Amino acid sequence: MRGLALALAGVLSLAAPHGALAQAADKPLKVGVSAGPYGDILREAAKVSEKNGVKAEIIEFTDWNQPNAALQAGDIDLNNFQHKFYLANQVKARNYQLVALDESILVPAGIYSKAYARVADLPNGAKIAIPNDPTNAARALLLFQKAGLIKLKASAGLNASILDVEENPKKLQIVELDAAQLPRSLDDVGAAFVSSNYAYLAGLDLRKALAAETQVAELKPYFTLLFAARDDRKDDPRIKTFIAAYRSQQVKDFIIEKFNGTILPAW
């Protein structure tokens, strides 16, 4: 009898992990994203993914630091809100074990103004606003340089910061703000660099921007977003199923019809 009990206990102990795995598989895949229109696209992808056997829950964050922190902590399974430079910067700065997966959308930013119709109209001493995180600050400075307002040191490249501005003929005041605050800053500054998700929410039209990243080929990696996962989860079949659903024709058509060129599919 004792031998039978031990045998049964062994069978149960072997069965328990499989039951736990099955239960985990029944839980929705948690996908993190910054607040705004990117979540709408993910929710459309979730419809396709569910048809293919993977339910997904879309979780929005208002702080750009949180989607990667949550991913590293295991609170979410996947995120989609950043370009490769932002991810690399956070991995290096915070020692995250996160990796880039497939590309998702193109989100070109622009320089917007409420007061001026052309870049040349910005007066001497005007304030211009850029994001306060390093990678997107560089992106903004490069676009302001392309627009002819400033000149950066040749060595700055894609790591440019305010310290790399070597020519500023109009003596523009460069103000660094949280990316989410940039559309609202247009009431107080001459011009601001605004990424497409916040531009869309604020009703800004990229076609009316003073300058746009689509005019600068070398900036394309900066406006190409990608999926990220923990390194130990990158081959998870559920993650692969969801990304395949995202990159489907149904989702591509949704993006094209909804965003009128402000956001574009990357595939």
From TrEMBL:
Belongs to the nlpA lipoprotein family. One of its GO terms (cellular component) is membrane. Keywords: Lipoprotein, Membrane, Palmitate, Signal. The keyword Lipoprotein applies. Residues 1-22 form the signal peptide. It comes from the Bacteria. This is Lipoprotein. The keyword Membrane applies. It is found in: Membrane. Pfam families: Lipoprotein_9 (PF03180). It comes from Azorhizobium oxalatiphilum. SUPFAM superfamilies: Periplasmic binding protein-like II. Its main location: membrane. It is a lipid-anchor.
